[in-house]
Amino acid sequence: MSAKKPQPDGKPAVSVRERFSALKNLPEFLGLIWQTSPTLTLGNVALRLLRAALPVAMLYVGQLILDTVVQLSRQPAQERLLTPVFTLVALEFGLAIASDALGRGVALLDSLLGDLFANRTSVRLMEHAAELDLDQFEDSTFYDKLERARRQTLSRTVLMAQVLSQAQDAITMAFLAVGLVAFNPWLLLLLLVAVIPAFLGESHFNERSYSLVHGWTPERRELDYLRQTGASDETAKEVKIFGLSPFLIERFRLLSDEFYRKNKDLVIRRAGWGTFFAGVGATGYYAAYVYIITQAVRGQISIGQLTFLAGSFARMRGLLEGILSRFSSVADGALYLQDFFDFFHLKPRIIRDETHVVRPFPHPIREGFRFENVGFKYRNAEKWALRNLNFELLAGEKLALVGENGAGKTTLVKLLARLYDPTEGRILLDGHDLREYDPAELRQEIGVIFQDFVRFQLSAGQNLAVGRIEEKDNQGRIESAAAQSLADTVVQKLPNGYDQIIGRRFAGGVDLSGGEWQKIALGRAYMRDAQLLILDEPTAALDARAEHQVFQRFAELTQGKTAILISHRFSTVRMANRILVIENGQFVEIGSHEELLAKGGRYAELFALQAAGYR
Ligand SMILES: Nc1ncnc2c1ncn2[C@@H]1O[C@H](COP(=O)(O)OP(=O)(O)OP(=O)(O)O)[C@@H](O)[C@H]1O
């Protein structure tokens, strides 16, 4: 990267070279438009080509009309034949109507193509985001890219129209230039001199504006966050109780005012310079006009030619100004495209390894999982979340993970599901590295219910079905999963049963208590029918009776399956075959409840601590 000139607020500006090099994105962009709809694209181009030829045709007919009129006016009254004039006027009338119709046709196709393109792009964005790794989502630069790619959907459709208009106007210019150059090539030069300063000015301000907006992506993300946090159903409760509104509003006001001020300075300077450059342009035009008039007065050209040339010059000035100023917004659009393509060029690392034969997932798992010296560090984190971890999770075993907050229990589970890969060491499944299996197949065989499970604003039935979404229409399966997780008792109370929308975001939604939500989430694990079931604090919000019932069923349901339980409640933990204690990401001890109690180590200590609380 070249050293960038900092903006007044310390953010890097975008160099001219970067803006030009961003234009290389246009062919790929046009390719995407073509793929969106070849028919609409072809139609659009054809209409624009026709339309490009019309201005010069109209000016030329105008010239013929005037010359014919002048000629007729010089003839004796009885010899004046008006038919040729009227024919020409009819022709010009036809051209005017055609021009208008073509203009509307182009606008229509632009809008249809634009809408279609925006829809397809949003779908592609969602599809690509779904392929990326979890840690990419946890990276703020990634998020900024995603944000810019998302925000620019609309302006990309504008960019499309701009690129096409650019080509259309260039063709019109070429037609007009032929006439102007034939008359006097210097006029073309005068035209450029009149227009280029405006272009440079425009270009400069566009660059500033892009830099400002680009540099402010994190702050704009924060603004969105503040706006949402200040007023959303999820946060309203705590915002009210803690009286957070003034704090949030103040931060929002400060940030948004600062952006307003910066943008205002830019807009004002832009308007000032814009007026000046428009003056320069007008001067050029009138100089050319005076010259053409002089030529007409001297009889060098006809009155018809005078109007043709003056018209051509004025028209070309408008077109050239348009082309040049559009050029700089096309260049900016292309810069935004850079963000867009950058996002699409991001590749996930946790993918099916196509360089090797992918190992089929064992059915059933024979030996189990083995952690060999596993260490993991989160992206951008200083500290290891897990280190030197060696243990075995045997096939069919129920293993409980115990450790204080932040010990690394959830991280361990995420490694098993390959949401991340270990930073060092490896995890084996039946003697082979997890990376040798297809991650999609692996995840199919693992059912995880995280402690921060998602409360989907969908129907109760769909909330259960997310455990295996292919079975969303299998009502029998949904109901039996609900019965196993006790979610059926929750659904019974809902006015519309399984079809009831839960959560408050949408009209008619009914919210559930924390424990009720948890029963629904647990049901997902039973929908899943996976070989390895992982429940991360599955019963934290359940009352004592419900917890007891859940675990009675859990033992039955996981028979023959491998399971991991994370819990801070020892009543739950002791139901596991073995318990793994971790502390600060390190292995402490492993064994059955009785063994660990007898050993009198960390587990025994924690157990005694909790038991004392109940005495
Ligand atoms: N996405 C993340 N990025 C960076 N650090 C993380 C991330 N998630 C967790 N950590 C850190 O990794 C460590 C282990 O976290 P983990 O969630 O695995 O703990 P845990 O044992 O499940 O805790 P708890 O009992 O509170 O659920 C913690 O120090 C935490 O701050």
Automatic annotation (TrEMBL):
Q: How does it sit in the membrane?
A: Multi-pass membrane protein
Could you list this entry's UniProt keywords, alphabetically sorted.
ATP-binding, Cell membrane, Membrane, Nucleotide-binding, Transmembrane, Transmembrane helix, Transport
User: Ranges for the ABC transporter domain?
Assistant: 369-609
**Gene3D superfamilies from the xrefs?**
ABC transporter type 1, transmembrane domain (1.20.1560.10), P-loop containing nucleotide triphosphate hydrolases (3.40.50.300)
GO CC annotations on file: plasma membrane
Residue ranges of the ABC transmembrane type-1 domain?
45-332
Write down the superkingdom of origin. Answer: Bacteria
Q: Where in the cell is it found?
A: Cell membrane
- Residue ranges spanning the membrane: these are 170-200, 271-292
- Database matches in InterPro entries: AAA+_ATPase (IPR003593), ABC1_TM_dom (IPR011527), ABC1_TM_sf (IPR036640), ABC_transporter-like_ATP-bd (IPR003439), ABC_transporter-like_CS (IPR017871), P-loop_NTPase (IPR027417), Type_1_exporter (IPR039421)
A molecular function (GO) held by this record is: ATP hydrolysis activity
Q: What is this protein called?
A: ATP-binding cassette, subfamily B
